[in-house]
Amino acid sequence: xxxxxxxxxxxxxxxxxxxxxxxxxxxxxxxxxxxxxxxxxxxxxxxxxxxxxxxxxxxxxxxxxxxxxxxxxxxxxxxxxxxxxxxxxxxxxxxxxxxxxxxxxxxxxxxxxxxxxxxxxxxxxxxxxxxxxxxxxxxxxxxxxxxxxxxxxxxxxxxxxxxxxxxxxxxxxxxxxxxxxx
Length: 182
Hints:
Helix content is 28%, strand content 29%. The protein is α+β, with helices and mostly antiparallel strands. A four-stranded antiparallel β-sheet has the order 5-4-3-6. The chain is extended, with a radius of gyration of 22 Å. Mean pLDDT is 76; it is low at 1-25 and 161-182.
């Protein structure tokens, strides 16, 4: 796990003062010290899960799901040179299309937050350059990866009754339990 790229660590301190400032984009929470409870999530994992279902027209269909996991470092009194312990912070099985929606939704929210950071840093205080450089690099790479994901999905054959592009309306499917082998 040591060769995984990690976000720069956040020192844990108790906030001494919390002040809310409203801006045109919504609420911005400002702290004069770093808050306790900031999570560093150095590892995420997505694994494809497939099940079958039945569409409204009674056709059997594959239903792609993703097993989504976030892992956090457990803060213990580790000796120097020891690796931090890891534990699952979050895990869920999510429909693939729902996960794609969540990525889009988070990207929209992250765009808003990025704009707020740009506005707030026009004053006397700035952000730590290493963290912003790391964030920019990650976002640029994410854009490339998401474009590649979309291109892969363009190659997925859609079996429809009509020729041409797949219908844009959502098809309700119901999961079919797997039959036990006797």
